[in-house]
Amino acid sequence: MAYPIEHKLVIGIASSALFDLSESHQVYLDSGAEQYRQYQEQNLDVILGRGVAFPFIRRFLNINKQFQRQAPVEVVLFSRNSPETGLRVLRSIAHYGLDISRAAFVTGQSPYAYLPAFNASLFLSANEEDVRNALANKYPAGLVLPSRTEDDEDDGELRIAFDFDGVIADDEAETVFKRNNDVDEFHAHETKNVATPHQPGPLADLFQKLAVMQRLEEKAQRRDPGYKKILRIAIITARNAPSHERVVTTLKSWGVSANETFFLGGMDKARVLQIFKPHIFFDDQLSHLKSAGGTIPMVHVPFGIANAVAAPVPAPAP
Q1: Ordered mean pLDDT values, 10 residues apiece, the chain (318 residues)
Q2: How many helices (H) and strands (E) does the chain have?
Q3: CB 111 within 8 Å of CB 14
Q4: Are 72 and 64 in contact (CB under 8 A)?
Q5: Residue 241 burial (CB < 10 Å; 0-12/13-18/19+)?
Q6: At what angle do helices 183-192 and 244-254 cross, to 10 degrees?
Q7: How far is Cα 144 from Cα 139, in angstroms, rounded to an integer?
Q8: Residue 253 is inside which H or E element, if any?
Q9: Catalytic residue list contains 163
Q10: Catalytic residue among 45, 99, 154, 163
C-alpha cells in the first residue's frame, strides 16, 4: 500500500520537462495527431533523452532512498498524451530507474486542473500555456526553459535556487517598484513594512515543504554525524539593504530559512548561479534567467505584475 499522497511533498512533471520530446513534437506539428500516434508506437522501445528537469527530478527522488520509512516525496507524471501514446514515456521512466508510479494522461487537454487532486506543490512543464493557466488559477507552476542538460552522476547534492519576490513571496513589493520604477520608493516601502511578513507567493508551499525535508536531514545528521545531506537551498534576490530585512522577517514568520541567501542589489544573478550551480532555479523575470554556458536549468514563474497578461482562464471541471 502506497503512503498517503497528502502526506508527501509532491512535484508534478510534464513529459516535456522530464524528457527531450523535440523530435516527437516536431512530428506532431508537421503531420498531426495520427502520425504522432504512429510515430510513438513505432518508437515505443526507443528511450527518450533526458530533458532539462531530469537531473533535478532524479535527485529529488533520491530523498526517498535516504528516508525509506517516511518516503516523504513523490513525483507524478502529468501528460497531454493518451495512455497509448504515453507508453513510451513510461518505458523511458522505467529505463532510467525513476521511482514514478502515478500518472495523469488527459489526451490533448491541459492537465493542470488535476494538480490539487495529487497534492502537487509544483507543476513543471515546457508548455507555456499550461503553466500560465495553472498560475492564473492559483496552482504552483513553472515553465522549464530550453538549456543544455548536464547531470554529474557523482554529485549527490540537490541544489535548488529561488528568487524571492513573485516566487516565494507575493508581488506586493514588485508592484510598488513597477509603479514608478523607483528603487528609493521600493526601499522606503519595505523599510516601513519591515515588521510585516509578505504574503506567500506561488512557490511558498514548495519552499516550506523543502524546509521540512531539511529538518529530516538535520535529525539524520544528529543521529549519524557521517550522514551527508542531500538538499542545499539558496535564495538569490535582486534586493539589497535596507530591503533585505523584510525577507528575513517573512521567512522567520514561516519558520523556514535557506542555506545561502544572496542580496545582489541588481547585480547579474549569473555571477552567483555559476558558482552555486543549482539543479533548478526559479525566477519570475525572464531577464534574470540566464547563466554562463546555458547549462543551468532555468524555470520561469510567470506570476504577478512582472508578467501581467490577459484575464485568468477558468479551470475546466475535472
Answers
A1: 78 96 88 88 93 96 93 95 91 97 92 95 96 96 90 90 97 92 93 96 97 94 95 96 96 96 94 94 90 82 82 45
A2: 11, 12
A3: yes
A4: yes
A5: exposed
A6: 40
A7: 16
A8: helix 244-254
A9: yes
A10: 163
